[in-house]
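Entry 14. Ran structure prediction on the chain below.
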Amino acid sequence: MNRKKRENAPQEEVFMESAPPQGNDFSAGRGGRIAAKAILLGLPLLLCAGVIIGAVSQGLYNRALEESNQTLRQQIIKKEYDLQNNMDSLNDEFVIASMKTLFGLGNLTYDMRRYWNYELTVNGAAVSGDRVSVPAGTVTVSLKQTQKANSFPYEVAGLGSTLGGDSDDKLSYHCKVTGASGVEASETEDGLLTVLTYTFAAQKGDALEIHLSYPLADQLGLAEKYGYDFNTIAVNVA
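Output, structure tokens:
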């Protein structure tokens, strides 16, 4: 009877305490807590460093921007000055650059030739061949360059001249007299007309020559007639 009661009596539950983490498990937990604390303590330092770097970078950027703006303001002031005081020359520069870009230097040079006329005379008679005859005495060789009226800047229109628009070039470089002594040369300008004149005394039998540059011979129409290597006119003194 007592045995049965003991068998039927409710059994007591047995609880076992969990063992504490051993070895590496415990160390890992502690290390994780230390790392977390280090991160939390380091975050303010990282934030401060970021703020300082950002402030320095912003300062450098602002300084560069101010310098750029100052340069831009100086350029604008210069452009305004140019527009107010150099409008004509600026317009010329624009026209010159635009025309050279659009048409090309070669085409522009050829097209501008129609605004120039050249005439070579010996004692007032036009030279149209490779030789001329004059009587002994005073001989005058004259070269006239006439620019036709146009609205182009000289740097454009001048490309069609024998001088090619070069302000340092002269007609005397393109037309010379040889074989005569006491040659007097003069060059005059009157508006769109430029005249080069050689005056000298010639005697019967003198072998005189007029030497032309290839561009001038071409402008006079002699290159087309005698070939583009033609550049000498013989002067016979009778």
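The first helix runs from residue 2 to 8. Will compare against last week's run tomorrow.
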